[in-house]
Amino acid sequence: MRFLGNIEAKTDAKGRAFLPATFRKVLQASGEECLIMRKDVFQPCLVLYPQSAWDTQLDFLRQRLNRWNAKDQQIFRQFVSDVEILTLDGNGRFLIPKRYLKLAGIEQEIKFIGMDDTIEIWSRHTDDKPFMDSEEFGKALEAMGTGE
C-alpha cells in the first residue's frame, strides 16, 4: 500500500474532509476500512495510518520499548493515547475533531501529502513548510548517496 502525491482540499464547517479519491482507491484496494489519526510527533500536521500501518508501527515500538521501564511506558502511552479511529462515510468523508484542527492550525484549506504507508494532513497556510527547497533537497539526497 503506497500513498503518493500532494493534494489540496478543504474542510467543511463541521471539520469534515473528503479523503482524496487516489488515496481512497489505495485504501479500498488493500481492504482497509478505518484510519487512525494522531498529531505528528515532530511537525504541526496530522497523520492518518491505515489499520495495518498502525499495527506495524505499534509492533515496532513494542519491540524496542521495555514494558518494565517507566520511561518506555510513558513513551508508548503518549504515542497511543491521543488517537482517533476514523471511518469514511458513504461519500468518502471523515471528521477531523476540533482539537486536531487546532493542534495542526487548520482553518479550512488543507493539503494531503502521501507518505508511502501514511497520509499527512497540513494546513495550507502553515508557516512550517513540509518541503525543503530544491537545493537543500539535492544536497540531502547527495549526502545519502555518499554516506556522509
From TrEMBL:
<feature type="domain" description="SpoVT-AbrB">
    <location>
        <begin position="83"/>
        <end position="126"/>
    </location>
</feature>
<dbReference type="InterPro" id="IPR007159">
    <property type="entry name" value="SpoVT-AbrB_dom"/>
</dbReference>
<dbReference type="InterPro" id="IPR037914">
    <property type="entry name" value="SpoVT-AbrB_sf"/>
</dbReference>
<keyword id="KW-0804">Transcription</keyword>
<comment type="similarity">
    <text>Belongs to the MraZ family.</text>
</comment>
<keyword id="KW-0805">Transcription regulation</keyword>
<dbReference type="InterPro" id="IPR038619">
    <property type="entry name" value="MraZ_sf"/>
</dbReference>
<dbReference type="GO" id="GO:0003700">
    <property type="term" value="F:DNA-binding transcription factor activity"/>
</dbReference>
<dbReference type="InterPro" id="IPR035642">
    <property type="entry name" value="MraZ_N"/>
</dbReference>
<keyword id="KW-0963">Cytoplasm</keyword>
<dbReference type="InterPro" id="IPR003444">
    <property type="entry name" value="MraZ"/>
</dbReference>
<protein>
    <recommendedName>
        <fullName>Transcriptional regulator MraZ</fullName>
    </recommendedName>
</protein>
<feature type="domain" description="SpoVT-AbrB">
    <location>
        <begin position="6"/>
        <end position="53"/>
    </location>
</feature>
<dbReference type="InterPro" id="IPR020603">
    <property type="entry name" value="MraZ_dom"/>
</dbReference>
<dbReference type="GO" id="GO:2000143">
    <property type="term" value="P:negative regulation of DNA-templated transcription initiation"/>
</dbReference>
<comment type="subunit">
    <text>Forms oligomers.</text>
</comment>
<dbReference type="Pfam" id="PF02381">
    <property type="entry name" value="MraZ"/>
</dbReference>
<dbReference type="GO" id="GO:0000976">
    <property type="term" value="F:transcription cis-regulatory region binding"/>
</dbReference>
<dbReference type="GO" id="GO:0009295">
    <property type="term" value="C:nucleoid"/>
</dbReference>
<keyword id="KW-0238">DNA-binding</keyword>
<keyword id="KW-0677">Repeat</keyword>
<dbReference type="InterPro" id="IPR035644">
    <property type="entry name" value="MraZ_C"/>
</dbReference>
<dbReference type="GO" id="GO:0005737">
    <property type="term" value="C:cytoplasm"/>
</dbReference>
